[in-house]
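ok trying again, last paste got cut off:
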Amino acid sequence: MQNIIQPGTVEKRICLIRGQKVILDCDLAAIYGVPTRRLNEQVKRNKDKFPEDFAFRLTQREVADLAAQTVKTVRPVMRSQFATAYKRNLRFPPYAFTEHGAVMAANVLNIK
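nice, full thing came through this time. structure:
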């Protein structure tokens, strides 16, 4: 049985980075129902299919700015709690996918 995505789910996960509307790898993986690790593996294996205008890695500053925005919009949390919780599983900066990159990701993941 296929999972049906509720209206508005994707729109809530889109953010503006470098003047482009993008969705982060963890959010895109959740929408496609695959682990983020698998999505990133496929992007690395198919680098030729993901030019810079399809997908790019965030800089450390962009990650910090995005984290600060997320904290403000989700709920007020003590800064020290957020810093320790956010960095816990982040070894590499996340990928950001444009609309074309999200479609290409579905293709390399064989999502129908």
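cool. The two ends are 13 Å apart (CA to CA). Residues 36 and 67 are 18 Å apart (CA to CA).
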